Amino acid sequence: MSLLVPLLLLLAVPACASAPLDKLTLPAGFHIAVYSDQVPNAREIALGAKGTVFVGSEDAGKVYALTDSRHAGRADKVRVLASGLKMPVGVAFHHGDLYVSAVSRIYVLRDIENHLDDPPKPELVTDKLPSDTHHGWRFIAFGPDGKLYVPIGAPCNVCDKGKAYAKLTRMNADGSGAEDVAYGIRNTVGFDWRPGSQQLWFTDNGRDMLGDDIPSDELNRVSHVGEHFGFPYCHQGDILDPEFGKGHSCKDYTPPVLKLGAHVASLGMRFYEGGMFPAGYKGAILVAEHGSWNRTKKSGYRVMAVRLDGDKVASYQPLITGFQEDEQAWGRPVDVQPLPDGSVLVSDDLAGAVYRVTYAP
């Protein structure tokens, strides 16, 4: 692993007062700077065809568009595209349109990059999703098959609702043809398709109230439609639930590819295919760990890199740490999004910011 060194700020890009980036640590040669500090409760990130950075949030139901018209590595204009939506944390760009998740509904803003200054009224795509707000915010993304993938989290810490919840679904872009993809997924807030194989990988948040150290969050890989990943019967591939695990065996469910750690709150993840980072990062999975909320000693609050050797994990190492100090958090990473130039954006809902990570040896 590269020697970790204190992060050096780019002097030309001042940090917002709520985001003390000098407290962060990255491997040697990596740098981080503020891309925008004007995105309250920044959540999922999506990229437009013309370079627009779209960000979902929970701030007054707003959806944001960030533009870097000067190509300076920082957004010089922040626009609000919609407001008053219900927890519109998920955004996905598809064929010129921006799709937005809003708990029980999916909306679309048509031809959005040509109407950033006069955004169209959101059109309803579907209102057939559950209205539960417990694990009801939805990370969304279009797959290689052209379908919109939408998770339906468990409406609880742990419960058995059959196949109505705790799953990943997909639908056509017009909301038709909804079908289930995988089950036994407590709450995935991040997934991506591996370049080449096009296999779907996803993070999943483990249940609470079994102690500080179990169960672990998970990194999973979908091998076939209808696959079951264990929840609520089996956690982290090898721990039966004390209540719902009776009569079940963990051998009957797909174990995680990697245990990410207990209560780290693994959220957004993306495969890195850029050319800016060192060669060892090519094909790696970058994971934003939002951080624990009730663990005795905090865990997560970092961005991790998972390097793969085939379908197996070769290493699991920090890319960014330092979002909490002395058990006090000032930042919470939510999503990671590589840009065409090979840099990576990181959203932070606590600081209300989006950062840009670059590499220059």
Explain what this protein looks like in three dimensions.
By secondary structure, this protein is mostly beta strands. 0% of the residues lie in helices and 41% in strands. The chain has a five-stranded mixed sheet with strand order 12-13-14-15-19, with no helix packed on it. A four-stranded antiparallel sheet has the order 3-31-30-29, with no helix packed on it. The relative contact order is 0.15. Residues 1-17 have low confidence and may be disordered.
Key words describing this protein structure:
mainly beta, four-stranded antiparallel beta sheet, single chain, disordered N terminus, 361 residues
Number of DSSP-assigned strands: 31
Mean pLDDT: 94
Q: How far is the first residue's CA from the last residue's CA?
A: 15 Å
The order of strands across the largest sheet is: 12-13-14-15-19
- Give the overall form: globular
Report the major sheet.
5 strands, mixed
Structural class: mainly beta
Q: Return Rg in Å.
A: 19 Å
In what range is the share of β-strand residues? 35-45%
Helix content: under 10%
Please tally the helical runs, counting DSSP H or I stretches of 4 or more residues: 0
Multimer state: single chain
Unreliable sequence segments: 1-17
